[in-house]
Structure formats: structure tokens, C-alpha cells
Design brief:
Largest sheet: 2 strands, antiparallel
Strand order of the largest sheet: 1-2
Distance between the termini: 6 Å
Order of helices and strands: EHHHHHHHHHHHHHHHHHHHE
Number of helices: 19
Helix content: over 70%
Length: about 425
């Protein structure tokens, strides 16, 4: 007979409350790190667009290649959790990230856009392992009724990383000497020398990131994280499959469109704000406004963590998606400061979406939690495809009106929040 699996195994990880809090603190540092590294892509988009003479679609390949890594490596990361556990998967992820960051140095030395894209895929491989392991680990490290609140709190520190990164990226990577006219006035060896000079600005930032990541990997390896036996899969479960859980499958679509919308907006804000009819400011100044977008997500996650202890996750998610859709639409229909600040404010409401969709998606999966996490993180590939689609749309109708694509994405999230997120428990043979 089939017996529904309850949340009980997930609510009883080994270790005391104090050890769980210590583990949560340690794992939260990983959220900050991958948020910081991911947000630097928003600086690389206009930087490489300028020095390699790219159109919007070509520059969006930075996000396409980076987030394609999630699609490629999510399931292998979930299998690694099954074999090695959550902690070792996190350590492997950090080490791979460190290696990828150091790859930016030779890429900059030859100023090769394809090599930079390859390094971004490797970087995404490491972050994928962290995302699959750390998101699921935090979600099940404690009572299930506070799962969304707990993950929102951890994701708030992810947003702290995304808030700081554009400021530092603008200071150390974007160059006041970038000159698009040089791409037409220079040729041959002179052009290549110019590109190498401008690309070299990424060397010191990514060298420091690589060193910090190596030290972090050592620290995580030495720390004793509490095991989560109720969320770890031991062999196959007869008759069970992640595809039998609609809240998970529909949640994967939700993650796809949410990440796609969030990354699309973040990727083009610098170019958007520098347009004459929107902000009419320099790209370096615009990069600092991008920090407000990600900073809104940080503030919203701290607020969301508190609200989710009192209100249903689906209700908070649905209201946030409605607000985001209305704000993007407002930006499309207006100009100047109204268009700028309405799109920046979207970050505040984006805040609760990923952790809420994630926890609703893996709800009551029991030992399938790791595999479910892998599927949800695979769906982050939306960050690869939707920005590319928006880039192509921007080349056709202009960047201003191309933001209609993220607005449509939020409509699906509204549907998932109110109708598509009802869980189906795991069943096990008696």
C-alpha cells in the first residue's frame, strides 16, 4: 500500500537548534558569494558590448552562456548530492567557482569574447552546485512551516551581494576610457591592443574573487554541517518520480520565468538608464542605480522573511507578482524618472519570488528533495533564454518597449501562486 510521506523527516535534521543556526550562518555566506558573482554579469554586459562592438543580442550572450550552465549541470549536481551529500557538493561548487574566476585572467590577456563566455559556463557550473545544495539545505534545515521564511532570510544575503557588486563593478571594471568610436577608427593590431587594454580591468577583481573562494572552500570543508537524513535519498523509491508532483513541475516553470524576468531587467538597466529619454546618464552612473534594483530585493527579503511567518506563502508571492507586473508596465508607458524608478522598484517585489517558488515547489518531497531541487535550479536557465529574447526584441522595437517580456513572465507567477502550487506528497511502499 502507498503511504503518504509527511514533512516530519524534513523537520528533524540531526543536531541542536544552536548547531542548526550555526550551519545556517555558514551556508548563508555562500548565498552572498554567488549573488555577488552573478550580479557582476550586469556590469560585464555593457562593458563587453562597448569593447567588442556588440549589439544587444550579442551582449546578452553573457547571460545566455552563464545561465545555460544551470540547465547543463543541475541534474549532475543533484546526483552528486545523492552520492556525496549536501556539504561535499557545496565544497565542490565553491572550488569550481574559484577556478572559473581565475580563468578570467588569461581570457582578458587575449581579449577573447568566446573565451570569456566559456569561463562563464564554468563559473555557472560551480554556482549551480551551490544553488542545488544550499537552497534545499536551508529549506529543510528546520520546521517546514518556516521554510519559506528561512530561505527568504538566506536569500536576503544573496541580495546583499547583488547590491554591492554593481557598485564595485562600476568602480573597477567599467572604464571611463571606453570609446565605441574606437571600434570604427581602429583596426588590426591597434584595435586588438585597445580591446586587451579595456578587458584587463577584470583581472584584479576576478583574481581576488578566486582567492576568496579558495579560502571559503577550505572553511566549509572544515565546518561540521548537521546531516539531513530525511531529505537525503538512499536508492530508488518504488513508484515515485519527481514528475508526479505538479507543484514541482509548475514551480520549475515559475523559476524559469521569474529568473528570466529578473535577469532581463537587471541586464539592460545600465543601457536603459543611459538612454536620453529615460535617465540620460553615463553607464558608470547607471551602474550605481542598478544597485538600487538589487538592494530593493535585499530589503524585500528581510521584510518577506518576517511576513512569511504570519501569512501564506502563496498569498505573499501572488501579491508581489501583481505589483511587479504593474511596475514594469508603468515603466514601459512612461519616460524619464518615472520610467527609471518604477523599474527599480520591481526589485523590491522580486525579492520573495525565488525562495517562495522554491519552497512551494519542493514541499513534501521527502527523500526526493535533492532531485526536486535539481529540477528547480535547472529551470534557472530562464536567465539564459529570456534575456536573449528580450535582446532580440530590443534590437527590433527598442529597449524601452522590450520590457513587455518580463511583464508577461510575472503573469504566470501570479497563476502559480494562487492555483498551481498545491503539493502532492511523496508516496512510499509499505
Amino acid at each position: 500500500m502507498a503511504i503518504p510521506t509527511t514533512n516530519t523527516p524534513l523537520a528533524a535534521p540531526s543536531g541542536s537548534v544552536s548547531s542548526n543556526r550555526a550551519a545556517l550562518t555558514v551556508v548563508t555566506t555562500l548565498f552572498f558569494v554567488w549573488g555577488f558573482v552573478t550580479a557582476l554579469n550586469d556590469v560585464l554586459v555593457p562593458h563587453f558590448k562597448a569593447i567588442f562592438g556588440l549589439k544587444y543580442a550579442g551582449a546578452s550572450l553573457i547571460q545566455t552562456f552563464f545561465f545555460a550552465g544551470y540547465f547543463i549541470f543541475s541534474i549532475p549536481a543533484a546526483k552528486l548530492i545523492d552520492k556525496a551529500g549536501y556539504k561535499k557538493t557545496m565544497v565542490v561548487g565553491v572550488i569550481v567557482m574559484a577556478g572559473a574566476a581565475l580563468l578570467f585572467i588569461p581570457c582578458a590577456s587575449v581579449a577573447s569574447y568566446p573565451l570569456f563566455l566559456a569561463a562563464l559556463v564554468v563559473l555557472a557550473c560551480g554556482i549551480t552546485a551551490l544553488q542545488v545544495a544550499a537552497n534545499a539545505y536551508v529549506a529543510v534545515l528546520g520546521p517546514p512551516e518556516t521554510s519559506s521564511s528561512r530561505l527568504n532570510l538566506a536569500q536576503a544575503f544573496n541580495s546583499l551581494g547583488t547590491t554591492i557588486a554593481p557598485w564595485l563593478g562600476a568602480a573597477f571594471i567599467l572604464s571611463a576610457h571606453e570609446n565605441p568610436d574606437a571600434l570604427t577608427s581602429l583596426s588590426g593590431a591597434a584595435l586588438k591592443a585597445y580591446q586587451i587594454q579595456e578587458a584587463s580591468s577584470v583581472k584584479i577583481p576576478y583574481l581576488l574573487i578566486g582567492v576568496i573562494l579558495i579560502l571559503l572552500a577550505i572553511s566549509i570543508a572544515m565546518f561540521k554541517l548537521p546531516p539531513l537524513p530525511g531529505a537525503e535519498r538512499k536508492g530508488k523509491i518504488p513508484g515515485e518520480s519527481i514528475w508526479k508532483h505538479p507543484q514541482l513541475v509548475l514551480g520549475a516553470v515559475g523559476i524559469f520565468v521569474y529568473v528570466g524576468a529578473e535577469v532581463s531587467i537587471g541586464s539592460y538597466l545600465i543601457n536603459y538608464f543611459s538612454q536620453a529619454n529615460i535617465g540620460n546618464i553615463s553607464e558608470i552612473a547607471a551602474a550605481k542605480y542598478v544597485s538600487l534594483y538589487w538592494g530593493g530585493a535585499m530589503v524585500g527579503r528581510f521584510i518577506g522573511s518576517a511576513l512569511l511567518q504570519k501569512f501564506r506563502t502563496g498569498t505573499i508571492l501572488g501579491l508581489a507578482a501583481i505589483a511587479s507586473c504593474l511596475l514594469v508596465t508603468t515603466s514601459i508607458l512612461t519616460l524619464g524618472h518615472m520610467a527609471m524608478y518604477s523599474i527599480i522598484l520591481v526589485g523590491l517585489f522580486n525579492s520573495v519570488m525565488f525562495p517562495s517558488i522554491f519552497t512551494m515547489g519542493i514541499a513534501e518531497l521527502g527523500p526526493l528533495t535533492g532531485d526536486g531541487s535539481g529540477l528547480l535550479v535547472m529551470a534557472i536557465v530562464g536567465g539564459a533564454l529570456i534575456p536573449l529574447a528580450q535582446g532580440r526584441l530590443a534590437d527590433m522595437i527598442g529597449l524601452h518597449h522590450a520590457f513587455i517580456l518580463p511583464a508577461v513572465c510575472y503573469l504566470y507567477i501570479i497563476h502559480y501562486a494562487f492555483r498551481g502550487s498545491r503539493p502532492v506528497p511523496v508516496t512510499q511502499a509499505a
